[in-house]
User: Which sequence fits this backbone?
């Protein structure tokens, strides 16, 4: 619940810039808030997934220490998932954190990752990066007991996915193209809005999605896109030895971990930050734990928020 306060505060600060067209200010507000809150906690935390590597990110960079002492933890953050989404006040912006014991989260470099993911309740290895698109879709449709034409694939709308999208069209699968939000795409698999997530997105978001999916029995596989000498050198600096390795869910998150997201703007799973008369602010969050606990928490704060919530509206 202490970590819930981290994402709630970051989401509230980011929401101040929702619809104002300034991605940098929205992201900075979320980052500043998240870092400040983490540094007041009794933890010995290491940011393993953050805003980038130390030379390119002034705060919440990979390797940064947070907290004032306590249990040693790996922490993965995306203070504002969907910066453009927030700036344009579109649905799906959120503040995200994942936490595990030290050494349990993959320290992925800030590069692209080729990913394939499915939701819970499916045979292990039902899809794989080692299989072609046709094989994966037929395997998934067989496992779900439906036709390939009934499958819904979610894909980031990027030029790099032109061939992927054409392949999906040829197989007659339905496609949901999204502007932003790798983690939102992974969330959509849990409730069945989509059946499979495919394509190249951020490696940090891949690790965060792995914690989320591990908590519900979903699956993700990812392979770092290291197609230049500079990228391979950066990967080596983060401890990556096998440049061609594919990482499964269990490779990205080992042992006990939990994932928390607080909505900045509305989504299918959570409401965004809302304001009411009397200066109250309501934050809507979801918590997923690999121990099996899944919660939706809605809390209301005075404006500006005090140390903690004054009303717990719903849990």
Assistant:
């Amino acid at each position: 619940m202490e970590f819930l306060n981290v994402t709630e505060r970051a989401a509230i600060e980011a929401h101040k810039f929702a619809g104002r067209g300034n991605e940098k200010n929205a992201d900075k507000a979320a980052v500043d808030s998240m870092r400040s809150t983490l540094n007041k906690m009794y933890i010995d935390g290491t940011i393993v997934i953050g805003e980038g590597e130390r030379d390119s990110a002034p705060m919440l960079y990979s390797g940064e220490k947070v907290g004032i002492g306590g249990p040693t933890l790996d922490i993965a953050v995306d203070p504002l998932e969907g910066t453009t989404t927030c700036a344009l006040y579109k649905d799906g912006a959120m503040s995200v954190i994942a936490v595990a014991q030290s050494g349990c989260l993959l320290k992925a470099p800030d590069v692209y990752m080729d990913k394939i993911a499915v939701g819970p309740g499916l045979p292990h290895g039902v899809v794989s990066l080692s299989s072609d698109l046709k094989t994966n879709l037929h395997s998934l449709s067989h496992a779900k007991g439906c036709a390939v034409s009934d499958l819904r694939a979610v894909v980031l709308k990027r030029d790099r996915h032109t061939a992927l999208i054409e392949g999906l069209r040829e197989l007659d699968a339905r496609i949901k193209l999204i502007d932003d939000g790798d983690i939102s795409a992974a969330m959509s698999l849990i409730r069945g809005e989509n059946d499979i997530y495919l394509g190249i997105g951020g490696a940090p978001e891949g690790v965060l999605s792995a914690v989320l999916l591990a908590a519900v029995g979903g699956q993700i596989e990812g392979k770092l896109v290291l197609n230049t000498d500079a990228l391979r050198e950066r990967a080596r600096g983060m401890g990556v030895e096998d440049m061609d390795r594919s990482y499964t869910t269990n490779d990205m998150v080992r042992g006990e971990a939990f994932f928390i997201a607080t909505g900045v703007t509305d989504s299918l799973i959570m409401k965004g930050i809302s304001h009411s008369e009397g200066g109250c602010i309501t934050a809507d969050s979801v918590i997923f734990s690999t121990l099996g606990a899944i919660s939706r928490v809605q809390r209301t704060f005075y404006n500006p928020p005090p140390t903690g919530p004054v009303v717990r509206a719903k849990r």
Summary: Residues 309-315 have pLDDT under 50 and may be disordered. The longest strand covers residues 72-81.
